[in-house]
Amino acid sequence: MGSLWGSKNHEEESQVNGDGDDSTLRVSHDDNRPRSSRSRREPTERDRLLGAHPPPHSDGYLDPDDPAVSPYNLWTVRALRFLSVLFLAITFLWWVLLLVSIFVSPPGLHTRGSGFFDFSYTTLTAGILLCSLLFFSAPSMAMRVCQGVIGLFLLVDLIIIVSVPRVRAEEGPAGIASVVWATVITGYCVTTDRVVAWGKREEEERLTGRPETRRTLREWLAVLTATIILVVYIVITVLMTATLVLRSRDASLEMDGQRYFVDGGKYEVHLACIGEPQSANGTRTPTVLLEAAEVPLEFDFEHWAYAAYQNGTISRYCYWDRPGYAWSDNAPSPHSAGMSADNLAEALAVAGEEGPWILVSAGYGSIVSRIFSARHFRDVVGIMMIDPLHEDLLHRIASPGRGFLLWAWGIISPLGIDRISGALFKGRTREDRVYGRDAPGGGKFIKAALQENLVADSLSKNEVTSARTIQSSDTPLVVVSSGVSVRRDSEWSRKQEDLTKLTDNLISWDVVNKAPHHVWETYEGRKIMEKRLGQLVKSKYKAVEEGWEASA
């Protein structure tokens, strides 16, 4: 009996451990010692899930649906899953850091091209890792193909960013690191899915006798869901690649003037001057200095100035783009109107431009011009404001709702849906995207508008309020207001009147009857604006002549 009992025990153990595996503990037929006293082999990575009881099948194999038939039996698969979780944690920390940098830029993380592209790449990376983890035990060829396509497009994005100097400068180290990480993680996910598929097949062959060719309904649903998610990721990646292609093409658009590094060399702003400086009786004639409203100045405001220059109303004018507008880079966050005024002063100094200045501004740009005027009052000989924004109304552009919408629109701006459709179906050009009608849809412009929103009712308001107290009282002043805005908004009308008291030397306050906020869009508005600008220039000439005659 003892011999038969020992033989039975031997047979059972051989079945449990793999149908005669050489590594199976072999018990002699005459060994009647208790199990606990027998010598045992070292456990393998598969022992943990197999249990201590023999399988119910006489052939020694497990049922294909047995939970012990799993790729997780392999240390390799478990290690890859741990690495995936670790990479997801690292990606999440980087994602949080980039999210914070949109609002407050840590040192070294400022991107001169909006900061939304690096955030989008990191979000995509986190999504790919999450998808891989959620469907980790259900590998499929469809998932690997989709991940491979995503990785291919990300590699193209990396090549574009690195090879185009302007895009490379705008994205900076943070943007390049984000797309490199996204590319590497996508390749890692392809490899992981392949290893899990191999492990699944190996365990099925070892424990059931053959690889499983069928899938349960749950597995098919998992594969279908993962494939749909990855197809959406493919569409997102393709759109981002197309947007990068447009950015690369836009980078070749020529501009008047040039860019100058400001704020310690952190970013560049664009400045251009038209005409040659002249002197009258040994004194330089004033240069008109333009400040944009809420859209890039080159779109239409600069055209009016150029017409005034062609008509001989003015002899010279300069214009620039605030950070994030047209050809200028984005500034680190936060960025206020006073910081923009300092950027302008620094760019003028680097370019070697000198006053005296006649400041011509519109809308929000009047806030920047007023701060510039107060800080450089000795060089400012005239102020002309077109439907200017009053400091007491800054809360209108500082509302939390507007800020959230700008942020949300910025997050999806790398997809470039409007820009791509405009280029493909509407004949939109590089000019439209850089400073024209499509410029507000770009990530740089959205970031600039978001920065204005974040500090409009705090830093910017404090700066312009302080500027009003030190504004030179004898500076000639012209205010041209929109008749549409004045009639529609009584508060706007009262604030326009208050701005006419900015100095004690008001030359004229005109309300152009049918003109919108951008007064220069109507013929009557352009005519009045040029007339008043000519009066400012002549008043300066007259002052120069009187001063020269008095000294003589």
The CA-CA distance between the termini, in Å, is: 137 Å
Strand elements, count: 10
Sketch the major β-sheet. Answer: 8 strands, mixed
Low-confidence stretches: 1-39, 48-54, 544-552
Radius of gyration: 35 Å
The CATH superfamily of the largest domain turns out to be: Alpha/Beta hydrolase fold, catalytic domain
% residues in beta strands: 5-15%
**Known CATH architecture of the largest domain:** 3-Layer(aba) Sandwich
| CATH topology title of the largest domain | Rossmann fold
Number of helices: 17
* Helical residue percent band: 55-70%
Return the average pLDDT rounded to an integer.
86
Side-by-side strand order of the widest sheet = 1-2-6-5-7-8-9-10
Order of helices and strands: HHHHHHHEEEEEHEHEHEHHHHEHHEH
The CATH class of the largest domain turns out to be Alpha Beta
Content-based structural category: alpha/beta
Pfam families: DUF2417
Transmembrane segments: 82-104, 116-136, 148-167, 179-199, 220-246
Biased composition (Basic and acidic residues): 23-50
InterPro entries: AB_hydrolase_fold (IPR029058), DUF2417 (IPR019431)
